[in-house]
Design brief:
Elements: H1 10-33, H2 40-43, H3 47-59, H4 64-71, H5 75-87, E1 91-95, E2 103-107, H6 109-129, H7 135-159, H8 165-169
Antiparallel strand pairs: 1-2
Helix pairs in contact: 3-6, 4-5
Protein name: MarR family transcriptional regulator
Domain HTH marR-type: 12-150
Keywords: DNA-binding, Transcription, Transcription regulation
Length: 178
């Protein structure tokens, strides 16, 4: 019986080969479409922007450092990714009420509307792609994909020190109302 990933049976090796290939194809197709939804041009959104807006929507206003920590990414990455969201009016940057030197980020009304539009489009896309699936198949796929994402997060957290909050709270699970 195999005791490590390197000691798999021929059958397991073939299955893992198929899995890694399927994940690679999925990642490419998801990136190509950016899961933009049914009305792609109108409802497409960059992955980083979508995840940042979701975080601000679910947790409310927060500083750059808190946002970075909660997502398990570097503060400079958040700063770079938030800049176009501020420029386009999706995110508001304000001073912290108690420490005027600190910056607080929050969704603007425009950001809330845009996020709702993209979520609706993505839900429509998911419905379209799984139209011939049973409810049980959708639930099983959602469960397994969530487990897979959790395993990736735990692996990343193990390589980079403390686990980001999303590894503990399933951040990238479906947002409320989705």
């Amino acid at each position: 019986m195999p005791t490590s990933p390197d000691m798999t049976t021929a059958s397991e090796s073939g299955l893992l080969e198929t899995l890694q290939h399927s994940v690679a194809v999925f990642a490419r197709r998801a990136e190509q479409t950016r899961l933009g939804g049914v009305g792609q041009v109108r409802n497409s959104m960059d992955r980083a922007a979508y995840l940042l807006l979701n975080r601000l929507d679910s947790e409310g206003p927060m500083g750059v450092k808190a946002l970075a920590a909660s997502m398990g990414i570097d503060s400079s990455t958040v700063t770079r990714q938030v800049a176009p969201l501020v420029d386009t009016g999706l995110v508001k940057r304000t001073s912290h009420p108690e420490d005027g030197r600190a910056v607080v980020l929050r969704l603007s009304p425009r950001g809330e509307a845009r996020l709702a539009e993209v979520r609706a489009s993505r839900r429509a896309l998911m419905a379209e792609l799984t139209a011939d699936w049973t409810a049980e198949d959708r639930e099983a796929f959602t469960e397994l994909l969530g487990r897979f994402n959790g395993a990736l997060l735990r692996r990343q957290a193990g390589q980079h020190g403390a686990a980001p909050r999303e590894a503990r709270t399933a951040d990238e699970a479906a947002p409320e109302g989705a």
